Amino acid sequence: MPKTLTKSLTPAGTLYRGREGQWSWVAHRITGVVIFFFLLVHVLDTSLVRVSPEAYDAVIASYKNPIMGLGELGLVAAIVFHAFNGIRVILVDFWKKGPKYHRQMLWSVVGLWAVVMIAFSIRHLSHVFGG
Amino acid sequence: MATPTIESPRSGRVAPGYSRTQGSRGNFEMIAWLFMRISGAILVVLIFVHLYVNLVAGDGISGIDFGFVAGKWASPVWQIWDLTMLWLAMLHGTNGIRVIINDYAEKNSTRMWLKGVLYTSTVVIVVLGTLVIFTFDPCPVVNGVAHVADYCPAP
């Protein structure tokens, strides 16, 4: 089969409808998976309180270094987006005008997320970098 | 002339493949969908307060150590708070990953294995976390050495 014909039969990407609806759905999935895997680790690290106070303090000390501090910023960013967008999903499902305003609600989510993250970043980074 | 009897729509003339009720899984998926919304709304409150108390208030992450955990779990309010958060977050997260596995794993055997690993991890983490909250000892004796803290009795 000629190469050009094969190429023309291949679907041009797998983008569904794009825009706010699809991308918020993608972001909700990715942040959800990230949060879930952190949750597994977080229960395990907290469980060290049953091993010994020293074991717990040693592992928690690693959460206080600057690289982990930036990781925590990313984690909180994921949680705050997932929380606000989750409220948006609930409104789309249960509020009569939800589907009509889903785009405006996504930009409200992004705006609120930015405000919360700016405030949290200042506070958290000053703790991490000893300000 | 007798009036012809007209059956109401979907009265036993629907092919089994198109039936919307009496599926083999009952209404499990609807319950799961509803659970995601209810648990999600509760988790927003539980987790935002958790993050505020642990990372924003006081010394933030710099103030977290064994004594900080002991101080929180001395109160049954925080025990119940953390227990509820553990159970709801794990069930919410497990159902989310279950849906993602169903979406992307195309082979039956792959789906079965991934969900097997998922459910096993969930049970282990939920049981472990629950035991830790309820068996926590603020003044443990490890290898014969008593933990020293101002809230513990002098050895």
Q: What would the keywords be for this entry?
A:
heterodimer; A: 131 residues; mainly alpha; 3 helical TM bundles of succinate and fumarate reductases; 0% strand; B: 155 residues; two-stranded antiparallel sheet; 4 helices; 61% helix
SS field, number of helical segments of chain A? 5
Q: Largest sheet of chain B, described in full?
A: 2 strands, antiparallel
Terminal residue distance of chain A: 66 Å
How many H/I helical runs of chain B? Answer: 4
Ends apart, CA distance between termini of chain B: 102 Å
Strand content of chain A: under 5%
Mean pLDDT of chain B: 87
H/E element sequence of chain A? HHHHH
Please give the order of strands in the largest beta sheet of chain B: 1-2
Number of domains of chain B: 1
Q: How many domains make up the 3D coordinates of chain A?
A: 1
Strand count, sense and barrel status of the largest sheet of chain A are:
none
Low-confidence sequence ranges of chain B: none
- What characteristic shape of chain B results from the CA principal axes? elongated
- Structural class designation of chain B: mainly alpha
CATH architecture of chain A: Up-down Bundle
Please name the fourth-level CATH homologous superfamily of chain B.
Fumarate reductase/succinate dehydrogenase, transmembrane subunit
How would you briefly describe this protein structure?
With 131 residues, chain A is mainly α.
Describe the structure.
The complex is a heterodimer of chains A (131) and B (155). Chain A is mainly alpha-helical and 131 residues long. Chain A has a single domain, classed as Up-down Bundle (3 helical TM bundles of succinate and fumarate reductases), CATH 1.20.1300.10. Helices cover 79% and strands 0% of the residues of chain A. In chain A, helix 2 crosses helix 4 and helix 4 (66-94) packs antiparallel against helix 5. Chain B has a single domain (26-139), classed as Fumarate reductase/succinate dehydrogenase, transmembrane subunit (3 helical TM bundles of succinate and fumarate reductases). The N and C termini of chain B lie far apart (102 Å). Chain B has helices at residues 28-56, 66-73, 76-104, 108-135, and strands at residues 141-142, 145-146. Chain B is elongated.
